[in-house]
Amino acid sequence: MNDDTLHPETLAIRSGIHRTPFNEHGDAMYLTSSFVFDTAAQAAARFSGAEPGMIYARFTNPGVSAFEERLAALEGAERCVAFASGMAAILATVMGLMKAGEHIVASRSIFGSTVQLFNNIIGKFGIETTFVSPTDPEEWRNAVRPNTRLFFVESPSNPLTEVSDIAALAAIAREAGALLAVDNCFCTPILQKPLALGADIIIHSATKYIDGQGRVLGGAVLGSQALMEGVYTFLRTAGPTLSAFNAWVLFKGMETLELRMRQHSANALALATWLEAQPQVARVLYPGLPSHPQHALAMRQQTTGGGIVAFELRGGKEAAWRLIDATQIMSITANLGDVKTTITHPASTTHSRMTPEQRAAAGISDGLIRIAVGLEHVDDLKRDLLRGM
Ligand SMILES: *Cc1c(COP(=O)(O)O)cnc(C)c1O
Asked: What pLDDT, in 10s, does the model give residues 103-155?
């Protein structure tokens, strides 16, 4: 059932299914750390790679393979390698495809832990990162060095929803002999297909929309067979493996991905449009709004604006905290991608490690609020915000 002429709704429900001899209708889960062989010769053939098949759950597991197959079908990728978390997927991309002395060019507006990983962990092993503007491809071109191996971008960005031109960055990367990796966590393959736009690698934190209900951690890297071989070798040797249970949850989560992303986007657009009309709101950042600085690009590159909305209150931090504390429905947490709406104050949480000057330069003001719009009724969400506005 991995026919690529099928629609995403169908692939999300039907791809990756391999039945056991019981011919079950539900999806089986395999809680086993290793696999047995019929004969010593078969064991040898599995270990040499002459015969495909399962060996040990650090390498792979039928449920993990099913998850990988389904996500690969949705992204239009030759191969997917699953990981225990999104951060493990990013680490594996660098460890599997780069070596000491090489160089990364990354967007300045990427997930905080990714910045820490590049600067403080990978940096210790002789791989340097230059951070550039997410919205100015010329900065990427100017940052290229002879040893640049990887471009890394996230679009739309968190929390300001800046949209990067993936096709333009792919062209610059190709010229530079570098690979372009896109963290596609905010869009999922339902809204954006980075490989079709020219990217080489897609990274997911499956913890977010792919699970969709805030239950488990997971991650994935996708791309060509040749590139994924390096990523898989790191996984199999170092062991940041996705558990069988988490793979099963994520596999089931994907069944409703298209439906959820459509409704997250519809709710977010309705809420963003309403916020723009509120006198207490100085500006709203949502790629689906015509007022967004990269609206035209976003609508070319994505099918909808997605589920994340940021807005700035005129009253600064005091007004932002008052609004957050007055909510009764929204969850005060930095997580996103859940059916439950979450609300957060980036300046004092996810971006609090930056100095006030760095935050000002990045456009993260004290009045900024980020909402990851869930699937509650949008009128109830508006009423919840009005309590503190
Ligand atoms: C959450 C997140 C990550 C990290 O994923 P984990 O599953 O928490 O390790 C990476 N990138 C983006 C954009 C994220 O939102």
From this structure: 999 999 999 899 999 999 999 999 999 999 999 999 999 999 999 999 999 99
Determine whether the shortest distance from the Cβ of 337 to ligand 1 is under 6 A: no
DSSP, collapsed to helix, strand or coil, labels residue 387 as coil
Name the residue with tokens 């995403």.
8
CA dihedral 256, 152, 128, 59 (to 10 degrees): 40
Q: How far is the CA of 350 from the centre of ligand 1 (A)?
A: 12
CB crowding 319-356: b at 16 or more within 10 Å, else e: bbbebbeebebbeeebebbbeebbbbbbbeebbeebee
Q: Say yes or no: CB of residue 155 within 6 Å of ligand 1.
A: no
* Token pair recorded at residue 323: 């609004």
In three-state secondary structure terms, 100 is coil
**CA-to-CA distance for 195 and 182, rounded, in angstroms?**
9
pLDDT digits (tens, 9 = 90+) for 56-66: 999 999 999 99
Q: Report the distance separating Cα 306 and Cα 261, nearest Å.
A: 7
204 lines ligand 1 (CB under 6 A): no
Atom of ligand 1 nearest to the CA of 337: 15
Domains and CATH numbers, the chain: 8-256 (3.40.640.10), 257-386 (3.90.1150.10)
